[in-house]
Specification:
single chain; 153 residues; mainly beta; seven-stranded antiparallel sheet; 0% helix; 42% strand; globular
Length: 153
């Protein structure tokens, strides 16, 4: 059995975990998959920010675990889920670190929503509203540094 390399975040590879501070709703195929006031934003090195939503705020009955897995030297073993309502594009669209390394312990018990497969996911709620009501937000357009969200029709 090979021992896996474990690395700690550093100035060369920072990982920042912060509360989003706003309500977030994830919709896929017209269904609410998750809704939370306790989402975290994980900013890792130069990667796109990822939203981590507590597993307790997700409708786990709408998700199916896949056989896919991956390993991150900074976070540990990742396990993946598909969202049947989102079709093929939602395969492995969600992942989790069930036993994350100590440096990223706050993500334990959370599901990550990020990456190129997130096109089907929509966030809403808790964001600036206008006379037309709450904005529907594409996760892909979420920019946590600026807390800026672009409206989609």
């Amino acid at each position: 059995m090979d021992k896996k390399l474990v690395l700690k975040p550093s100035a060369k590879h920072p990982i920042n975990i912060e509360p989003l501070g706003k309500k977030v709703t994830v919709r896929v195929g017209g269904q609410v998959v998750a809704e939370s006031d306790n989402a975290l934003v994980v900013k890792e090195a130069s990667y796109p920010a990822a939203l981590y939503i507590p597993r307790s705020d997700a409708k786990m009955d709408l998700l199916e675990r896949t056989s896919h897995g991956s390993y991150c030297h900074y976070k540990g073993e990742a396990y993946y889920y598909r969202i049947p309502a989102g079709g093929e594009r939602s395969t492995n669209a969600i992942w989790t670190y069930e036993q994350p390394y100590e440096a990223v312990a706050p993500i334990k018990g959370h599901l990550a929503f990020c990456g190129s497969r997130r096109r089907n996911q929509l966030l809403s709620g808790g964001y600036p509203q206008d006379e037309k009501g709450p904005h529907r937000i594409s996760v892909r357009r979420f920019h946590p540094r600026r807390q800026e969200l672009k409206r989609i029709s």
